Structures are given as C-alpha cells and as structure tokens.
Amino acid sequence: MTTNPTGQRPADLPERIRHWIGGELLDSADGRTFPVCDPVSNAPYATAAAGARDDVDRAVTAARAAFPAWSKLGNRERARVLYRIADAVEAREERLAALETFDSGLPITQARGQARRAAENFRYFGDVVVALGEEAFRAGDQQINYVVRSPVGVAGLITPWNTPFMLESWKLAPALASGCTLVLKPAEWTPLSASLWPEILDEAGVPAGVVNIVHGIGEEAGQALVDHPEVPLISFTGSTDTGRHIVRSSATHLKTTSMELGGKSPVVLFADADLDAALDSVVFGVFSLNGERCTAGSRVLVERPVYEEFTRRLAERAERVKVGLPADPATEVGALVHAEHYARVLEYVEIGQQEAKLVAGGARPAHLPEGNYLQPTVFADVARDARIFQEEIFGPVVAVAPFDDEAEAVELANATEYGLAAYVWTSDLKRAHRVAHAVESGMVWINSHNVRDLRTPFGGVKSSGLGREGGAHSIDFYTESKIVHVML
Ligand code: NAD
C-alpha cells in the first residue's frame, strides 16, 4: 500500500476492511474487493470487501436468527446496551476522529464533534425507548382500544460518505432501540470508520448477528439489500437520484422507506437582521464539514439595502477560512472526499463563472498543490435559473442573490426542487415566523445556527426526502403499530 505523503496517516490502519456478519469478520463470498483511497493523496491505502447478493443473504440470515432474542429484550435492557455503546464510542473519540479525518477529509476538530454526536445518538435513543408509552383509547364503558408496537424485523440501513460514522449511528441507534436487528451498508468511499463498529458493539455486549455490516458498491451490495425479500424496511440517506431509484425498487416488496436526501437550503437575510451573527452563521453553515452537509445554507438571499455590504463581507470571510490538511487542528476546510466528487465540484465552479460573479475562491489554494482542496467559493448576483442556484453542489461553494421584498424572498427560497432546511434572519419576529411558515422545507432555523435537538423531527419535503426520523418519529419508523380492540 502507498503511504500518505503528508504524514497524516493514522497508526495501525487496517489494510483490509471486511464485512461483519453474525459476529465474524468475513471476506466476500466471491473474494472480490475494491480499493479505498484517502482524499489527500488520492492513493489507495486499503481494500474493502466488495459485497454482493450472497454476502447480503448471509447477513440477513444472521440478522433474522438474532431477531427473536433481541426483539424480546425489554426496552430498559436494550437501553442499557445502547448506553454501553455510547460509552465505547466516547472511549474511542480520538481514534474515531483520526480515522474519519483520514478517510473523508473532514477537519479533525469537526470530526471530533461528529464522534461526540454519534455517542449522543445512542444515549438519546436509549432514553427515548425507556420513556416510551403506548396509547390506549377508551370508548365509553363499552370498549377499550390499545396500541402495541413491535419492531419491524431486519432493517436495511444505507448511508452516505459525509460524516459517515455519525450518520450510521443516526440509524443504528433507533433501529436497535426499537428492537430491530439490521444490516448496514456503509458508503464505499468512506468505509474506514465503520471498521470500528465490531469492537465497539462487542465491548457493549451486542449479541452476534444483531448488527451486520456489508461493505460494497451501492449498485451491487446496496441494491441486493433493497431487493432482499426478508428486509421489510430501508432507511436511506444519500442523493435524491439514488433515493428515487430505491423507492422504485422497494415497491416490489412494498417496503417501508425513509428517505433523507439532498438539499439546496436557502438562508433568507433581511436588512434588519443582526448582520454579524448572520455572517458567522452563513460562514459556518456552508463551509463547515467542507460544505459536504445536507443542510448547508448554500443559497444566501439578501435584502437589497444590505446586499452589497453583506456580499463583500462574506467574500472577505471566505478568503480568510483556513484550508489545510484535515488532521491539522487549525484547519477549517479540509479535503473533499474523493477525486470524482472534487472534479464534480470544480465543474460547478467553472459553470458558476459563466453564470454569475465570482467574488471569492474558485480555485485550489496555492499552498496545497495536491489533494482535493478548494478555496471557499462565493458567487454573487446568481440568477434563479442558474445551475449553481438550482443544483446541489455539496462542497464549499455558496450562491448569493438579492431580493426586494418578503414575497420575492419566499418565492426565491422555494424556487428549487429541494426542501430540506431553511434559515431566516430578521429582527422582526412576526416576519420571521411568517417566512418560516411559508418556506417549503422540513426544518427552519430562525436567527440561529444549524443546531439539532434530537427530540425533533428531521427530514425534508419535495425532492429532499420522504418521512421523518428523529425523536419518537424514528421509533414509529422502526416499529409497526397494532391496534387491539377489547369489548368490556
Ligand atoms: P449516494 O446516493 O451516491 O450514495 C448513498 C448510499 O447509497 C451509498 O452507501 C451508496 O453505496 C448507496 N447506493 C448507491 N446506489 C444504490 C442502489 N442502487 N441501491 C442501494 N444503495 C445504493 O449519495 P452520496 O453521494 O454518498 O451522499 C451525498 C448525498 O447524500 C447528498 O445528496 C446529500 O445531500 C445527501 N445527504 C442527505 C442527508 C439528509 O439527512 N437529508 C444527510 C446526509 C447526506
């Protein structure tokens, strides 16, 4: 294996990333593998098992065998296991962050934050199931009707390459809390951090077969999971195109699906807003996590009187963002995840130069001649029909456009196919709520950063997704409700 020329390589990297099925680390049944690269050298550092139908079959068989015992445990008992998983994740925060940073190019300080959030997901969903009640409805003295919930069975979980470990935990935690057993298919560009799950889950005492991991290419391993008749539920996070395809494939077996898809989230900034706070938030919202964030505020709509000033200040701030080696604690934007994604983002930067006015960035930083680096990039005067206004770029690139009144702001905010998140900045609270209600999105933040409250529903409208996860919504998703009617 090639060594990483920058000295960023963590110690004890595995050379081979294998499936984890029925408590055993396994190669693919047909022995095939695929190369895994890091985004700083773009050279392969390991191979991962390339899962196919047979491997998914083995994993589903193991998950089915583990289901009766796991699903029968009491909620308190399962919660205890989830708390131990949280402890085991926390105990590995540094290792986890180092692997994630190396594999995905996330700045190390942000990767640490994601590791903490992963632990929190387990603690939180442990709490949720302990507190969970079931409904009862009394119809006079005649009848009582009560709901019983049961886990759906073997859950199929398919995750993307941005913040991979955290997003895996976002699905694993509620699935396990609900009593499902599962098969996880991690993203093929970033399988490294998932190689920590076996030791974490073993340490926490999760029985063999409850969690199974099949690595591989989406169209093969992922598709086999979607097509498997014994997997009644698919929780998917990824691109809108893949989501559409999975919903179509899932129709064959009428699977329950949850789709957390792409976004092109607007920031609506009125002239009476606290511009300093809004500026900090915009910079954080689109450049943190390398801009590879589904809820990134990637379109900034600014009321005309402050448009020039805000755009100039945003460009200045973008120029000052520190782009650097992912493992350097001073780095604010690291390397984009993969050479193919980097090329796609650069293509958008080129398109943007024809469509709008480039006011910051737009190129590789001079001090980083190799690796998938891009200066934070700001385009101004972006028209609503521009591709950089309409399409998800998923990198450190932001489109800025002016508006003249509230009606135009809402119209522009809603002028894309997406509807995941939105951000509103104004000191007029009535207007803030009006705009929040009028914007087509699953989530809106008023005068605030993208800070999540795990109890709240998470998801999007239009092409950004189907269904909600988060809080009790996740438990609803991973369980079936049955109503029992009793005559008294
Ligand atoms: P992707 O759709 O290319 O891949 C996501 C996962 O799906 C990967 O594991 C991939 O292997 C798998 N896959 C691909 N084809 C498949 C198929 N035919 N059947 C089954 N599985 C298949 O997405 P990506 O490029 O990895 O992720 C980036 C996208 O994810 C962006 O659009 C981003 O907005 C979105 N995202 C959304 C959220 C959200 O919560 N809404 C969160 C994070 C990322």
From TrEMBL:
Record domain Aldehyde dehydrogenase: where: 29-484
Keyword Repressor appears in the UniProt entry: no
Gene3D superfamilies registered for this protein in UniProt: Aldehyde Dehydrogenase, Chain A, domain 1, Aldehyde Dehydrogenase, Chain A, domain 2
Xref: PROSITE patterns: ALDEHYDE_DEHYDR_CYS, ALDEHYDE_DEHYDR_GLU
GO MF annotation, one: 5-carboxymethyl-2-hydroxymuconic-semialdehyde dehydrogenase activity
Active-site residues per Swiss-Prot or TrEMBL entry: E260
Family according to the record: Belongs to the aldehyde dehydrogenase family.
Protein's UniProt name: 2-hydroxymuconic semialdehyde dehydrogenase
Origin organism lineage: Bacteria, Bacillati, Actinomycetota, Actinomycetes, Kitasatosporales
